[in-house]
Amino acid sequence: MNKNKAIEIIEILKNTYPDAKCSLDFTTPFEMLVAVVLSAQCTDERVNKTTPSIFSKYSTPEDFANIPLEILEELVHPCGFYKNKAKNIKLTANKILNDFNGKVPETMEELLTLPGVGRKTANVIMLEAFNKPQGIAVDTHAKRLSNRIGFSKEETPEKIEKDLLKLFPYEYLKDINHVLIYHGRAICTARSPKCTNCPIKEYCNYFKSKV
Predict the structure, then answer these.
(1) 3-state SS assignment for residue 168
(2) Fewest CB within 10 A of the end CB: N or C in the chain?
(3) How confident is the model at residue 77 (pLDDT cuts 50, 70, 90)?
């Protein structure tokens, strides 16, 4: 797919979903980090139902470093994979205190040194917490739509992201993940996508293969 066509698709989706934004609730970069870690293999809706009671008592790296692991496991249990998530959050809180003066680091390279923080998570934090997009977070929606539309034929998030970064100028990085998530939830669902209602169907490889 050429760049102009790809940009046109994103422009249509931006107009279709003008309110598209990150759906995780947070007030600080560290709360953002915790919320993103909890969102792995869990819906944002579930995370947003879980975090208010946590953040009302524990919101800083110091808080999470000092909380007993068993209590943290209990608090994050609704988000699934609670043992691994609690362990990583606690390790990350300690590392932020020890290595970054108690502040969430503001570079991709430093974020990737935090336990449980992969490239997708780091991309989300750089965009949502610091408004400094460095790449594109490729979650399940972004992966599915990139393959269907024709942005990328790759299967791994890392390779898909590389293909997307070849297509889109920097100023689009803040929008792509958001509009793909919204479109993936509303129209281009994993099962039974609503292709006839799709505003970009004439551009889409998946739709054209069905006709």
Answers:
(1) coil
(2) C
(3) very high
Q: At what angle do helices 119-128 and 157-167 cross, to 10 degrees?
A: 40
Alpha-carbon Rg for the chain in angstroms: 18
The Cβ of residue 60 has, within 10 Å, a number of other Cβ atoms equal to: 16
Q: Which of 22, 19, 7, 18 is nearest to 200 (CA)?
A: 7
Tell me the three-class secondary structure of 8-46, residue by residue.
Answer: HHHHHHHHHCCCCCCCCCCCCHHHHHHHHHHHCCCCHHH
pLDDT digits (tens, 9 = 90+) for 137-171: 999 999 999 999 999 999 999 999 999 999 999 99
Find tokens 């994979």 and name the residue.
Answer: 81
Q: What CA–CA distance (Å, rounded) separates 160 from 148? A: 12
Domains of the chain: 3-20+136-210 (1.10.1670.10), 29-128 (1.10.340.30)
pTM beyond 0.90: yes
Distance (Å, rounded) from C-alpha 186 to C-alpha 172?
21
